[in-house]
Design brief:
Length: 125
């Protein structure tokens, strides 16, 4: 009798890096503006929650501090943070800020998403 073992769907060691997450220049500029408006530096927390019309949805929050196990992504003197649970869903993604006819918002350009909804907030893998 033989046993077949498959590799886990996601395998990341946050302390070892290798997540490939990037923060775009547009997101860094917007975080600079928001921090100036708030009167103190802000961090962009990016998380993945279950739900949305495609199975998962992105959640964005402005916070003043990170949790000890958060992964920090920096660009232009600004930072986004991601919790270790959300990290596998975001591996290799770019966090950007877009300002177009649909509105101004932070977005995730996620190469892992097999499909997404029209608004770009929810996705499936």
């Amino acid at each position: 009798m033989s046993t077949v073992q498959s590799a886990p769907l996601f395998q990341i060691s946050p302390s070892a890096g290798g997540h490939g997450l990037t923060l775009s220049d547009s997101a860094a500029r917007r975080l600079t503006e928001l921090g100036r408006d708030e009167g103190h530096p802000v961090l962009l927390r990016v998380a993945v929650d279950g739900g949305g019309c495609s199975g998962f949805q992105y959640r964005f929050e402005l916070v003043q501090s990170a949790e000890p196990d958060d992964i920090r992504i920096e660009a232009g003197g600004q930072a986004a943070i991601v919790d270790p649970i959300s990290l596998p869903f975001l591996k290799g993604s770019e966090i950007a800020f877009v300002d177009d006819l649909a509105g101004a918002q932070f977005v995730v350009r996620n190469p892992n998403a097999a499909s997404s909804c029209g608004c770009g907030v929810s996705f499936s893998i």
